[in-house]
Amino acid sequence: MKLEEKAKKLAEIEIQTQSELLKIDLKAGTPIFILGRNGTGKSALVNRISAQLSGKAVYMPGSRPSYFDGESLSMTPASRRSFTNDLMHYDSLPEARWKSVTGTSRNEKAIHDLLAAESQYKIDAANQIKSEGSSSSAIARLQANNSPLDIVNSLLAQANLPVRLEVSDAELKAKQANSLYSYARMSDGERSALVFAAEVVAAEPGIIFLIDEPELHLHPSIVVSLVKALILARPDCGFVICTHQLELPSDIQGGKLILVRGSSWNGNEIAAWDVDIIDDPEQIPEWLWVDLVGSRRKILFIEGNNRTSLDQPLYSLLFEKISVRPRESCKEVIKAVEGLRAVEKTHRAEAFGLIDHDGMLDEHIRKFESNGIYPLPIFSVESLIYSEEAQEAIAIQQAETLGIPYHEMLEAAKTAAISSLNLHGAKEHLASRLAERQMRDQLLSAIPTRQQLIEQTTNDLNVTINSPYPSELAHLTGLIARCSLHEIISRYPVRETGVLNAVAKGLRFNSRDDYERAVLRRVGSDSRLRDRLKQKLGNLAAQLE
Questions:
Q1: 392, CA 20 to 30 Å: which among 216, 245, 268, 428?
Q2: Angstrom distances, CA of residue 463 to CA of 400, 447, 466
Q3: Contact indicator for 156, 194 with CB cutoff of 8 Å
Q4: Confidence of residue 472 (pLDDT cuts 50, 70, 90)
């Protein structure tokens, strides 16, 4: 769907930020989507817009119920007029965002307006036929199945809902298979879809619909197709939609997006919002939407698995104001950072990456950092979890509980860990793992450039590198002899040995998992430990502060 570029301006909405008052044109047929993570103030923003557009908008707050009080319509034309006058006041109240101020009256109004529009459509046609006779164009209009109720049924069908509405005995009924029953007896999602469709179809031209979380009571497979159908059905109206359905901005091209990152309160009301205005959502790859919409200003992509990795919980604790997003591999981290930085003109988020060091050469580290990707100055996340600082903090904590001097437990942990490295093949394995990465980097650096390939006169390529293994093994052997446990943990992939289990046992934990959970809890409560661990992250910590 491609929306008109020169759509009619219906209104102007205002958003107060910390630094300025943003003014945004709201145009017919060009929806505005409000997205952001939970707690940023999205619904409050829709509520504020409702107050600005009093008398011009149909507000569907997140507090709306999905049910009716009875099986028959109780609202009359007179009570409907009275309710409409009161509604402008109700919708301006901040509590309308979270409190059902009007009960089920909004739903009653939607059904009342749909029935009134259907009746008027038929009455107008009947009067025209009475005046013009059998040649009247109204006959074809009636046969075209384009009445307000026909349109509502079409919208429900486009949303893959297997129910139709019809008027029977002067009341609105739902029909499915051979059953005919009150609209009030429809399923929760069907009733919500009906109210949306009724409001949109029966509205006057130029009305603006403010819909807060249409996905409430609706399955994700329904909400996208329904909202898209509603917008297509009323190109003369405006739509402001607050949603968690990221597919909507992608499916409905040409819309505008307000990305809400946070808000600041003054008393009981929000005084200002932190927002990005994105005019062209198509520039942002679909696979990045989740990370961008759910993020704060700075996003840190890390290696790790959501379910088992220590990276996500640890870095989320170390950097409380940063959104941490795990990726399965180093390549995925690089892809995510490059993807967001490539479209940085469409948003104001900053993307950074953190990847394992793996014995990387200094020149490669500098190249990565110039692109916002920071190799750990230490080998991996275990180098933080099992660092000297973390072990000391946990040993002191254990001493308070167990009554054993903390330095005795630290010494026991060190002795057991060093002993595990003296087992057959342990140090050879660690040295070769580090040497392997160093050799890969050397080989990549030694590959001829394109210009060198062009200038070469023979078919043979000879690359000679020195094996770093002997010197790495000698270095590790020396560290073991000096019992330099923390240098070993910082430099080598000790997770592949018995070192970590030995440390956990030495500090009187039943398992590594128990020790690691204790460290995470301590990091969350100990600001001094957090600061000491952040210092180990080198240049990245300075960028994220």
A1: 428
A2: 58, 7, 10
A3: yes
A4: very high
| Contact of 506 with 485, CB cutoff 8 Å | no
Which residues does residue 326 pair with via DSSP β-bridges, in sequence order? 302
Both tokens of 447, joined, read 């590959």
Task: Measure the CA–CA gap between 340 and 492, rounded to whole angstroms.
Answer: 32
Residue 152 token pair: 């509502």
Average pLDDT of span 290-317: 78
- Model confidence pTM above 0.90: no
Nearest to 240 by CA among 59, 8, 99: 59
Alpha-carbon distances, residue 61 vs 27, 48, 161, 211 (angstroms): 21, 11, 23, 6
**Any residues with CB less than 8 A from the CB of 7 and at least 6 apart, and which?**
27, 28, 29, 30
* DSSP type of residue 2: B
pLDDT 10s digits, 393-409: 999 999 999 999 999 99
Q: What angle do CA 375, 378, 382 make, to 5 degrees?
A: 110
pLDDT of amino acid 5: 46
Interval 160-187: pLDDT, tens: 899 999 999 999 999 998 899 999 999 9
Whether 427 and 421 have beta carbons less than 8 Å apart is answered as yes
Domains of the chain, earliest start first: 9-278 (3.40.50.300)
> Within 13 Å of residue 380, how many CA atoms lie on the same side as its CB?
15
At 536, which amino acid appears?
K
73-80: average pLDDT? 94
Q: How confident is the model at residue 287 (pLDDT cuts 50, 70, 90)?
A: low
Distance from the first to the final alpha carbon of the chain: 42
CA nearest to 146, candidates 116, 118, 113, 175: 118
Tokens 């008052």, located at residue? 21
User: Considering only 134-143, 201-210, 216-225, which range has the smallest mean pLDDT?
Assistant: 216-225
Residues 6+ apart with CB under 8 A from 527: none
